[in-house]
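Practice problem: predict the structure.
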Amino acid sequence: MILGDMGAEIIKIESPKGDLTRTTPPIYLDGTSLYFISNNRNKKSVLLDLKSEVGKAAFNDLVAAADAVIYNYSNGVARRLGIEHDDLAAINPNIITVSITGFGEEGPEADRPAVDLIAQALSGAMSITGEPGGEPVRSGVPTADIPAGMYACIGLLAGLHARRELGHGLRVDTSLFHAQLSLLNYEASLTKYTGVEIGPQGSGHTGNALAQAFRTSDGWLVIDAGFNHHFKQLCRLIGIPEAAENPRWQEREGRRQDRVELTRMVQDVLATQTTKHWHGILAPEGILCAPVNGVLDALDHPQSKAYSATRPLSFEDNTVEVLTTPLWFDKQTEHPMQDPPGLGEHTREILTTVLGYDEERVERVLREGTGKKGN
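Answer:
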């Protein structure tokens, strides 16, 4: 989707049943899941049954014409369908293939399927998420799915660049497990060095006594006052200057060791006034702070609107607001956003314009290579 936002032509190959996310609950617009609609703009849907001889032949012709192929199958499925890198490179030696699997193409778990939740659990991410002493908590956003897609995008672009020097294509391999694991950058180094599990930190941070969410009289305010000058400024602004003078709290390590006492002191003060009150006092003085917004509040925030964080998309007779890709290029023409496709909506178009099939051959593919009649 990101590549499509930047102008790439994206052809989405769908099986006769269609992308499984077309049926993800709970919201449907004319029978199609809002989940699918929000994640599939700028893609052209081509319906092909890769298990059929005619459908596979059409797919191979698309591979011959493509710069890159991204697939998101478990290794066993890709192998059975004959769409692994060596299979596709035999058709197009310049092809860049990007494989997104649960665990990668090597190792003891390579043939196991996975989803975002499995990756969050197995990677250790869930063990440091949530409140101390509480149950394991899944992140509110898919922190394995999203970075895996981003790494795939980065790998594809790097592969296209490398092809100029190599003179041929190459394989890029990423996985949900490793993408999620990569986000535990500092946490992984800390744990390996100390040999001690971090455990859940709530909204706090292992090395910072005053970087967390604080309850106000009507909501929550996050504050990061870890640096010495921020700490002293915070104490002055909220009326506890004596805390800033405490000799134990002149440096971050001392504050970290006494974080329970210090946090309670700050919390008791902040609970007496509203979020707006404290934000109005702290933010203008350079204290890093923000209200804990709901999603609607965030989308309606003036900063979101300044960069058009959402744009309307049409699907059938519905209009849906979707997030835009947060990349802005100087002196580049903006590419129009294409609405999400219906299942197989572009099959005839792609067979004709990209592959140059005549009408007879197009009809044969529609009849014998899609698993459905007509398009």
